[in-house]
Amino acid sequence: MIDxxxxxxxxxxxxxxxxxxxxxxxxxxxxxxxxxxxxxxFQYPVYWMGVPWITKKYIDEVFSAGINTVTYVSDGRSRxxxxxxxxxxxxxxxxxxxxxxxxxxxxxxxxxxxxxFDGLTLDEANVATHKxxxxxxxxxxxxxxxxxxxxxxxxxxxxxTRFRDTLERNFITSK
Length: 175
Description:
This protein is an alpha/beta fold. 37% of the residues lie in helices and 11% in strands. The protein is built from 6 helices and 4 strands, in the order H-H-E-H-E-H-H-E-E-H. It is globular, with a radius of gyration of 17 Å. The model has no long low-confidence stretch (mean pLDDT 94).
């Protein structure tokens, strides 16, 4: 997915920087990337209905270290101004993000009141990650998810086409 996104974005005039969080990462360098980026593509497998532990560790370390510089200045509230709401202290205004997720569950489990997620949409089921970016002031783009990744009949060519179509809508036609 990352190779496909990198190739697509590069071919369409975007400068691309990567982070591979399973490898060692430097928090300062990661904050510089977040400050530099206009768009953030967050690709991860969904483990136990959320981000993998290593991703949560990255979020805790990097986003917390960005206080007052890159990610947020406060939770937004103010004793002097009661109209300021919780979650409005983000410093990433003007930035957009896209979630790209891999799931083993079928897509029929979302938007289905009888499904595992009790009628939640894909985005509602991933609210914690969306709220992370919202707290920091970034705006969501359309989420992409590949489902049934362990099924033997997974058509990766069709999935990559669907992924490129989502990238097209998010990064080219929405500009």
